[in-house]
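Section 5.1 Outputs to date
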Amino acid sequence: MTSAAPSTSLPLQIAITTGEPAGVGPELTAQALAGAAAHWPTAQFTVLGDASLLAERARAVGVDWAALVADGKRVRVQHTALGAPSLAGRLNAANGRYVLDLLDSAIDGAVAGRFDAIVTAPLQKSTINDAGVPFTGHTEYLAERTHTPRVVMMLAGTGKRPLRVALATTHLPLKDVSAALTIESIVETLSIIDQDLRNHFGLPAPRILVTGLNPHAGENGYLGREEIEVITPALNRANDKGIDARGPYPADTLFQPRYLEQADCVLAMFHDQGLPVLKYATFGEGINVTLGLPIIRTSVDHGTALDLAGTGRADAGSLIAAIDTAVSMAQHRRVG
């Protein structure tokens, strides 16, 4: 599936799915958009969710939601009714389908060209699975719904030179990672990272540092042969395609300034190899970006925070950063 060409007329159209209704997504959306006019003057926002729920959660955190959406010029609501009443912090499988309906509407709108980008608040995988719908995560679902054969999960911090970490594999048991890594899959992943950093982040010559899989990057084969038989041949093939990818580096020493200051992205081999480092450095201000899609999608770096829902204590920093990045990516895409 390919998306329609982005509109050339301002403002940018950004969709926000509010995610799990029992979590912090609805209230963080209200908090983030309270400053929409000042923060994102070139964007209009469509918030996907139950209108009554959004108003209720906005009130809980002191946001005048009625005033925010009154004229529909800066922020509008695309109403989808809850499957069942929702209480903050209490999951209900009857709302699993509701969460997917929000996501489907955003994806369909982006593919059709009505939205320049989508931003997703956190959802609860267990609620969707308990509703009888097999669901692994946002990343995999977006790939399936857009018929994209390979996508790449990348998390990033904010700042002048943000730390970006992409993953060669995503939500897999550790025992399955080695078998999932092939020369072809790593080359495809590097190609997606290189292309999207150029097209959506304005980087003319991205430099990608690649971790090994094993301790000490395999120690010349004594601690594993994936670096010799898979990762290094993949890097050679990527280099032949004009991609500046270097490694494999031992993951325990790669994440330090003397390496990272020369890198635009790190490609880690599995989820818990790269993301703990990034989240330690950026949690609360980091974002999740799905690369390789025909549409632009960003998200927060945290979960539904059920214990904080409805309390007003959740921090909207990550969602604000995700919106910042979606707007920036959409602008890069628009200007070519």
